[in-house]
Amino acid sequence: MVTSQLNKRYVWLTLVEIALGVLALCGVPLLKSAILPLLIVWIAFALLFSAFYLASIKRIIVVADGLETQNLLLPFWKRFYRFAEFDYAQSEYSKSGEVLRLIKNGERQVSIASNLYLNFEEIKAAIAVKDKSGFIVRDNAEVVSEYKKSRLYGILVSMLFLVFVGVATSLSDLIDGNPVRWGMVLLGAIEVLLFGSLLLVFLLPYKKITVWRGQMEVKRTFWPFNVHYYAISDFDGFYYVTEKSNGQLGSRDEDSLWLVKDDRLVISVEEPMYSNYEELKTVFQSVSCLGRLEFMGFQSLKYHLGKKFNWR
Fold it and tell me: Is-contact 62 2, C-beta < 8 A?
């Protein structure tokens, strides 16, 4: 039996980064007259993000035929997996270390990061799951994208809360029965526009992808009138893309698959957005792989806006 040993130093450093990042976001020093309300908002957000982060960390116990995961924040939340349940294991590498992912039905069931566990190599050696070589999805199987609900709901709740804070800032004088200060109204309106716009930016890329027998339907979830149909053979190829992070607030590199036609990006399939990202990747195995690219997030934006790939 192998029991995971948590890298407490890494966890504490991440929690401190979360607190400092939220403090900078809320801008506590900006308004002396509103230090206490903003401080309360900062503390609430720091606790919220810290709780989400801690809830994502699991204690892992590996036995002869499987492994048990136990939530760090909610220790009564346990789950046991048999090794035979998984289709394959896949290792991915980045500047922050290695991540071992156990895949079942195209979905990532368990992720084990080397920076979180001091005895990562011992855990990896004890997990008896074959690697991805030889794994091929059935040709006639319909594959439908599935969102990572925790990420989607987290974005919705966080941004809607910030919009609510902006509305409350605008109406604070009316609520308190004080004379209206137009500076506070303007500040609240700016917050509503800013965080409302960010919410749209985050949600508009969400799209439902359905692939069946070489045909693909793409429908934007938050704009369902925008539907496109493609044949897999329409695409010139695809790139494996890694969008590099700066490591702030516990962020990590994000992988995606870009489908290209006429040297332009047509469809991007993002790993952080879909829980069955690995299954979605396998349905494009008949399309030519054009290579692997690495960008910082802001650099990849120009290709989403229509810039051509000029690698040849």
Answer: yes
Q: Residues 127, 67: contact at Cβ < 8 Å? A: yes
Strand, coil or helix: 245: coil
SS3 content of the chain, % helix, strand, coil (to 5): 40, 30, 30
Task: Note the pLDDT tens digit of each residue in 173-187.
Answer: 666 667 767 777 787
What sign for the dihedral angle of Cα 20, 21, 22, 26?
A: positive
> CB–CB of 277/108 below 8 Å?
yes
Encoded tokens for 40? 């309360």
Q: How many residues does the chain have?
A: 312
Q: Residue 242 in contact with residue 255, Cβ under 8 Å?
A: yes
- Span 84-105, pLDDT tens digits: 778 778 777 766 778 888 887 6
State residue 118 phi and psi, 5-degree precision.
-65, -35
The rounded distance, in Å, linking the Cα atoms of 256 and 268 is 7
Phi, psi of 114 (to 5 degrees): -65, -30
For every residue of 51-67, DSSP letters joined together read HHHHHT-EEEEE-SSEE
Amino acid occupying residue 105: N
**Model pTM score:** 0.56
Exposure of 174 in the CB half-sphere (CA atoms within 13 A): 9
Beta strand 58-62 pairing with 107-113: unpaired
